[in-house]
Design brief:
The complex is a heterodimer of chains A (114) and B (114). With 114 residues, chain A is an all-beta fold. Chain A has no helices and eleven strands. In chain A, strand 9 and strand 10 form a beta hairpin. The radius of gyration of chain A is 14 Å and the shape is globular. Classes of the chains: A mainly beta (114), B mainly beta (114). The A-B interface holds A 3-4, 30-31, 33, 35, 40-45, 48, 50, 88, 90, 92, 98-100, 102, 104-107 and B 2, 4, 42-43, 45, 90-92, 97-108, 110.
């Protein structure tokens, strides 16, 4: 069973601080997605990275896909209370031909205190 | 605003009850999914449907019975559940099951089995 491990599991920081969340695996993924889930809601797709070494920015969020496509990071600059939520990474792998499986990470619960 | 809706949002049922969860997607997608989200566990994929046909069943107990009458609707029929089945049940859809498989989630049904 492939596993996508995220670290840290929990993070509580003050508004204005920077933080980085990591998503690691021993498996290679064809693409990797990041989702944010707020309490009482389903996950919402933030970004998809496809190419090894790719960097994508979404306002104060910076996403990077590892060169070997086995890991990814999410960096948040000047965190705000609205960033609070569960951050999930999900890697897509090809199985038996064209079928893709999406494997979700263990999650990072972020709380940004005002 | 999400294009995937789920009802009910909350459900409490006894172990001998029979109930159904409903999911509807308004995104024109072809694939639909049921996931189980429990505390301290990664998202668990339960079932996948593509063009109304079930393509994946990840060893889900038979007390969970999915139904997909068309590409826009997905049901999860529940009967004789166990307390450990209490969780958030998420429905998702995507444009096919190959490629990036970016998923769009509904808000979930919080299920409590007493």
């Amino acid at each position: 069973t492939q596993l996508l491990e995220q670290s840290p599991q929990f993070l509580s920081i003050q508004e204005g601080e920077n933080l980085t969340v990591y998503c690691n695996s021993s498996s290679v993924f064809s693409s990797l997605q990041w989702y944010r889930q707020e309490p009482g809601e389903g996950p919402v797709l933030l970004v998809t990275v496809v190419t090894g070494g790719e960097v994508k920015k979404l306002k104060r969020l910076t996403f990077q896909f590892g060169d070997a496509r086995k890991d990814s990071s999410l960096h948040i600059t000047a965190a705000q209370p609205g960033d609070t939520g569960l951050y999930l990474c999900a890697g897509a792998r090809v199985y038996g031909g064209a079928t893709n499986k999406l494997i979700f990470g263990t999650g990072t619960l972020l709380a940004v205190q005002p | 605003e999400t294009g995937v809706t789920q009802t009910p949002r909350h459900l409490v049922m006894g172990m001998t009850n029979k109930k159904s969860l409903k999911c509807e997607q308004h995104l024109g997608h072809n694939a639909m999914y049921w996931y189980k989200q429990s505390a301290k566990k990664p998202l668990e994929l339960m079932f996948v449907y593509n063009f109304k046909e079930q393509t994946e069943n990840n060893s889900v107990p038979s007390r969970f019975s999915p139904e997909c009458p068309n590409s826009s609707h997905l049901f999860l029929h529940l009967h004789t559940l166990q307390p450990e089945d209490s969780a958030l049940y998420l429905c998702a859809s995507s444009q096919g099951t190959s490629g990036r498989r970016e998923q769009y989630f509904g808000p979930g049904t919080r299920l409590t089995v007493t």
